[in-house]
């Protein structure tokens, strides 16, 4: 399979509602898409880097620059996904940029071979249970309305974004309103310090599935200390950028659960390695999200179908994010999304919709 070139495309997608986390508020998603062109098939990869480096050090403009300057030029004309990964390895970091290119190469290969992402990755089921990540709101009543809407839509698990000043009260209110059977977890996006341990232990009263990334990204040792002070299991997101990080976190006792985001760890091959490692150590994993369009969502849903993904993911329906997705929308059915079965990602952008949201395109010949 000869790669003739790579297109970098920037799109802007308005969100259906502002999404507030401890690191900022998003009202639109600025997405970098990568399209790999071969004579037989094209492949798509969605870069999950956000517009600004607030969740992690990567950001969309920086990812585009890493791709055009280093990663795409390093790609051998006859690469498969493994070869693409090896060719990019000498360049440190930029995992979200690498993930997008590797995914596009993999998609092109799988489409040419007629194999789906799910089949390639080792999916063990044909649909996955879906959770939803609920942003920080202006008031508790507003939050309860939002959660009620998601429960009504069938989401099987609710994740509340928290930060200092928005933690115990919203969690208590959601528990009181929706009862003890609701699968409930929280995500702090690194907003606390170890000295907040006593305060965070107040969340132990609410039977949460987990607390995600309470402390700073590089605080594995502190997370291990915190784990001893909380009954609520700790799940790591930002801290885990590779299988090596996951191995270190597990051996330190820094987490009992891992949020696997393929973009954060450099791609679906590394995501699968983390899945395999965690499964071997009895550590549960679930598939995180980065407000993906249908392209990134398709691959995430396939990954979430692997046997070690034993907790519902942030694999929400398209409508949770976008009024109009760039692919045919993912729609929840009984709280689940179907794993696409077509070749590659199994979905393609709708050309007219893609054109409408496109801000720029750039062609890099190989
Ligand atoms: O921390 O999981 C996170 C969105 C953007 C950046 C970081 C995170 C999130 C979410 C939403 O929580 C996940 C989703 O629904 O895609
Ligand atoms: Mg998170």
Kindly describe this structure.
The protein is an alpha/beta fold and 366 residues long. It has two domains: 5-114 and 350-365, Enolase-like, N-terminal domain (Enolase-like, domain 1), CATH 3.30.390.10; 119-338, Alpha-Beta Barrel (TIM Barrel). The protein has twelve helices and 13 strands. The chain has helices at 60-74, 81-88, 95-113, 117-121, 140-153, 168-178, 197-200, 220-229, 243-252, 268-280, 294-304, 351-357, and strands spanning 5-21, 24-37, 42-47, 127-129, 131-134, 157-161, 183-187, 211-212, 234-236, 257-260, 284-287, 336-338, 358-365. The strands form three sheets. A seven-stranded parallel beta sheet has the order 5-6-7-8-9-10-11. Strands 3-2-1-13 form a four-stranded antiparallel beta sheet. It is globular. The site of magnesium ion (MG) has 7 residues, from loops. Magnesium ion is lined by residues 187, 189, 212-213, 237, 259, 288.
Q: How are the elements arranged and paired?
A:
Layout: E1 5-21, E2 24-37, E3 42-47, H1 60-74, H2 81-88, H3 95-113, H4 117-121, E4 127-129, E5 131-134, H5 140-153, E6 157-161, H6 168-178, E7 183-187, H7 197-200, E8 211-212, H8 220-229, E9 234-236, H9 243-252, E10 257-260, H10 268-280, E11 284-287, H11 294-304, E12 336-338, H12 351-357, E13 358-365
Helix pairs in contact: 1-3, 2-3, 5-6, 9-10
């Amino acid at each position: 399979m000869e790669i003739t070139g790579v297109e970098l495309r920037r799109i802007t997608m308005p969100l259906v509602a502002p999404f507030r986390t401890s690191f900022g508020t998003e009202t639109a998603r600025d997405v970098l898409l990568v399209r790999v062109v071969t004579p037989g098939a094209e492949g798509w990869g969605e870069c999950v880097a956000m517009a600004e480096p607030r969740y992690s050090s990567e950001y969309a403009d920086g990812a585009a620059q890493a791709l055009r300057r280093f990663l795409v030029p390093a790609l051998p004309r006859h690469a498969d996904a493994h070869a693409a990964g090896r060719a990019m390895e000498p360049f440190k970091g930029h995992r979200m940029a690498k993930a997008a290119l590797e995914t596009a190469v993999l998609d092109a290969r799988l489409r040419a071979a007629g194999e789906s992402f799910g089949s390639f990755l080792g999916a063990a089921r044909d649909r996955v249970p879906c959770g939803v990540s609920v942003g920080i709101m202006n008031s508790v009543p507003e939050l309860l309305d939002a959660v009620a809407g998601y429960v009504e839509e069938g989401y099987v698990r609710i994740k509340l974004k928290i930060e200092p000043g928005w933690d115990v009260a919203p969690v208590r209110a959601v528990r009181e309103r929706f009862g003890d059977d609701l699968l409930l977890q929280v995500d702090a996006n690194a907003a606390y310090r170890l000295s907040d341990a006593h305060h965070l232990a107040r969340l132990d009263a609410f039977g949460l599935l987990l607390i995600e990334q309470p402390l700073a990204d590089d605080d594995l040792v502190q997370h291990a200390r915190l784990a001893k002070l909380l009954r609520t299991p700790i799940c790591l997101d930002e801290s885990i950028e590779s299988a090596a990080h996951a191995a270190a976190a597990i051996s330190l006792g820094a987490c009992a659960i891992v949020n696997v985001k393929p973009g954060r760890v450099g791609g679906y091959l590394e995501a699968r390695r983390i899945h395999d490692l965690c499964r071997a150590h009895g550590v549960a994993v679930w598939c995180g999200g980065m407000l993906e369009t249908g392209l990134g969502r398709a691959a995430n849903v396939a990954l979430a179908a692997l046997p070690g993904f034993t907790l519902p993911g942030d694999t929400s329906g398209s409508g949770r994010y976008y009024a109009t997705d760039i692919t045919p929308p993912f729609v929840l059915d009984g709280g689940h999304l179907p794993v696409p079965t077509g070749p590659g990602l199994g979905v393609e952008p709708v050309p007219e919709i893609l054109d409408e949201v496109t801000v720029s395109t750039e062609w890099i010949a190989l």
